[in-house]
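User: structure tokens for this one?
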Amino acid sequence: MGMHRSGTSALAGALAALGLDAGPAEALMPADEGNPEGYFEITSIADLDEMILALLGGRWDIPPQRDAGWSERPDLASFLEEASCLVSQTFSSDRFVLKDPRMALLVPLWRRVLEDVVAVLIVRSPAEVARSMARRDAMTPLTGLSLWAAYNRALLEDLTGMRVHVCTYEDLLVDPRGVLGEVAASLQAFGQLDEPGDLDAAAAHISADLRRSTDLVEAELREPPREIDELARTLTALRGRHDAFAATVPPAGAWEAALIGERRTFLDAQRSIVAQFEAVVADREARLSGLEADNAALRSQSAELRGEMDAALTELRALEATRAVRWARALARHRH
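Assistant:
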């Protein structure tokens, strides 16, 4: 688990090399320029998480509001059933690694879906995450920082009581074998790994080249807000194994909620516009369907009238033929 652009893909690949089932290759999200080594995400599960976020009024880059009891909404039941089905259909072993950064915003739901679950949380410098998201998603630095904070605050709250191992992206790049060895030891202690696979093979999934977003120039990233710095220090201090995770969540700055709230308002406006277009399209389609029905009825009436006309013409020709015969006979008698 972790924020987007925090090394979750590299860590998931390494955990798979340690012996955990990452799912069949055809079910995984394909690699691309953003992650050349692959995402190690089950595409159907990532899509489902995005659908849940949409139902809650958000998106991966616009965390939904966390109102009291949000995870107990009755309309989420069908999504939880689908999540359970996807997990059982995807993994052939009960020792598997499931990775999707969106899950950080949906931990209470996934804790209801998965049994005997543990979390491996990876934390990356907020400035580097914000810089990476600015490059990939054209976000402002402060927006990236606010999203980094929203994801990690949600994790600190929702992982409470779980078995958790926390590591940092920076440590993983500096000493991949050592950090993965610590993770493997925690997973063994948690009963999730019998004998870890080849640590060297797992460490091969980690490369210093992954750290591409370190040329920080924006003032917001050189000197991040106090709330972000405090949250980063809190997360870093949690490195290691936790048999029952507990953490004090530092207070958020008012600007964090304001930035995300502005994005949420923009999303609502977009959805309203889309809904209006969909209504217009639905109305046009209904009218077109009605015109097509009228056209079909007119064609049927036209065909019926044409049939009647053809029958009348046949009778007329027969009548004319009869009259012609009578006139011909009359003329013949007159000549005689």
